[in-house]
Amino acid sequence: MTATDNQLINSAWFTDSRQVTGSPTDSADGVFFAIKGEHHDGHEFISDLYQKGIRQFVVERSALSPERRNELANYPDATFIEVDSSLRMLQNLAADYRQQFQIPVIGITGSNGKTIVKEWLAQLLDGGEGTDTFVVAKSPKSYNSQLGVPLSVHELNHEHTLGIFEAGISTTQEMPALEAIIRPTIGIFTNIGTAHDEGFRTRKQKIAEKLRLFTHADTLIYSVDYADIDEEVNLLLKAVNPVMRLVTWSLTGKNATYQATLQGKQLQLTGNEITPIYLVLPFQDSASVENLLHCIVTMLTLRSWGADAIQPRLNRLRPVSMRLEQKEGINNCVLIDDSYNNDVAGLQLALRFLNQQSTRSRRAVILSDVLQSGQPEADLYEQVSGLVQSNQVEQFIGIGPVLSRNAHFFGTNSLFYQTTDEFLANFPVSTLRDSTVLIKGARPFSFERIVHRLERKVHGTVLEINLDALTHNLNYYREKVGSETKLMVMVKAFAYGSGSAEVAQLLQFHRVDYLAVAYADEGVSLRQNGVHLPIMVMNPAPETFAALLEYNLEPEIYSIRLLRAWAEGLGKSGHSALSPMPHAPRPLHLKVDTGMHRLGFLESELPDVAAYLNQRPDLRVSTVFSHLVGADEAKFNSFSHQQYDTFLRSTAYLESALGYRPTRHLLNSAGIVRFPEYKLDMVRLGIGLYGVEASGIDPLALQQVGTLRSVISQIKTVKAGESIGYSRKGVLEHDARIATIAIGYADGYDRRLGNGVGQIWVNGTRCPTVGNVCMDMTMIDVTEASATEGDDVLIFGDTLPIAELAQRIDTIPYEILTGVSERVKRVFFKN
Ligand SMILES: *Cc1c(COP(=O)(O)O)cnc(C)c1O
């Protein structure tokens, strides 16, 4: 190890420029690893990071073009370490860092349950008294990747007495790097799934690759009920690691260290080498039982604890929640409700999310005592206060005795309460307004009561938006088009019903190139919510030009009349004072009509357009685009080809007539999948982002984004022959239990879904509608379902696809999505 390496090892590590908030403490000894990945290139952010105070960079040789080398020469006081792979460098440093610790480290792999076993073990082992004390370091959430593992292991410090890290791999050759970084002394192999796995030839190969995590471990814990795992352990692992101790368990009477028998919640463990142990399990579903057995066997392996030590710890165990929800609050606030562990790593992740999704002018944090035993109290709260400050939090509220006695670390604009009750009784709620509020508490503080107090209450129908699924879908299309093609994302019509501001914030975080909306006011509202990406407005009426200029929105120009009006408007407004760069020409977007015959210039009009533009150097055609009329259906392929040809001719003409080359774009979501060869310089992603694969070619590629839920307001038993609802449409043929649901056509539940056409999912049973759909309510037949008043029901989601709903009433998914009215509350969540 060189002196430089040694210094790098102990610096703060950054791999994402967005983590660097610009606080002096962060930046002073920080090092940024510029990683060139599939979706973005860290080297693009070097100057940005330099401005934020970072002075050490690890950069990749292949990413250093002559221009970039010139750029780096502007920063003589920064150090650039050139390597072949920044990720590899980070991994090597993490492996060296790990060597400084002689504590037991648990490494977990397997197909399922890794994160739960890790979180539960941390709950079960952390804290305690005397020799039973553990101070646990662990990976946050499911940080188990090639990048997540080194960053997690780097969080180890000398107060920790135990590390718990998970490792996930998706192809061969990935595990050796993770093994060197985690270097587990104790291994847990949770299980192996039967699912087909792309990165591996066979199930056996998958097991063999995962077992590489344990090449140097002293002990391995697994269940012999997975015969394949048992076989590979004895065949392969034993050969490379013959002294390893195998600690096994079985629920099916197989030969193992621990024979487990379960009767209801009662667990009995017996075995040749142990005294029997009896425990009561807190959870009984089969997945939880398997995870619990791994945890219990691990505890027995680490310490010779008896049931008297283990049972109380089991009783305190809580389900693992990693969900973070964003919802509307009172006083024009937005609430971020984070139920994941309140430790420093969890807080860091939550503050990043607050930073990313902040749509209000102010930020506030309500935080309970932080669970962290690895650090002296004063150090811990100084660090917490630093995190809060560097994330520009204006208002801080601390709840709990420990936070209260460390109040001096926090600014004067902070308030402290000993308990949640004291907060609820005394906090002046009206002082919290126009803010994005992060609410994060350790479980004993019951912060759900605070969320309940601050949440804006509306009727029981909600549209849940899964932000992880949005990200997944975005990445799917990014991968399809590659890094050379830009991405414009359509957030018109309230982001296809999903909520414009929040979706746009996420897209901004993921650095898409452009957004597009239909009307000026949609663009204005995005700007007012802190979105600064370039925005194209597709239907800009002349009355809105002043707003376009004021908010730096870019018009789609589709006719000579509109072009003249825009040019004249610019002249009048003296726009140079308003424009961010006074002398820069104003960007506009030309729409060419290649066959849709909606908006746009016909090919024959282009000479006039070019002639006009050539007299107005203050206007610049930023992009030229057209739209396919039938990208989602193969039967229109030849027409699509024809449109492409017309479009290419048009753009070639414009390029030569204007003397520069505007960005060209043609494809929508279905087009990206069906005609990848037409991707040109940019594509326009719409419905695919929201989880509907409109081309039908790759139906399993996307994740469902929206789930529309409502509640049962009332249930009654009605006799055969009676009718249900308006106009006596729903006449019952049999005695029935009829439930009234709090959703109607005014919420977007289409009236055509009435009278049995639509179905609503109630606790696993699909229930038909009965009678006409009303404005605010719908009746369904729940005779076959197990249903009680107050139950949640599902209108669309995983078990009832939007596409099916659309088909039932002979429309398209677009109409279902955008039809969910704005009075339905949106809740955004991520894991
Ligand atoms: C809405 C829209 C799109 C996106 O279409 P999807 O089918 O939702 O992907 C693309 N281009 C234009 C001009 C649009 O209006």
TrEMBL record:
Keywords per UniProt = Isomerase, Ligase, Pyridoxal phosphate
Sequence positions that bind substrate: R598, M775
For molecular function, the Gene Ontology terms on record are: acid-amino acid ligase activity; alanine racemase activity; ATP binding; pyridoxal phosphate binding
Tell me the cofactors it needs.
Answer: pyridoxal 5'-phosphate
Listed GO CC annotations: cytosol
Q: Known catalysed reaction(s)?
A: L-alanine = D-alanine
Pathway given in the UniProt record: Amino-acid biosynthesis; D-alanine biosynthesis; D-alanine from L-alanine: step 1/1
Family annotation (SUPFAM superfamilies): Alanine racemase C-terminal domain-like, MurD-like peptide ligases, catalytic domain, MurD-like peptide ligases, peptide-binding domain, MurE/MurF N-terminal domain, PLP-binding barrel
Q: What does the sequence similarity comment in the record state about its family?
A: Belongs to the alanine racemase family.
- What this protein is called in its record is Alanine racemase
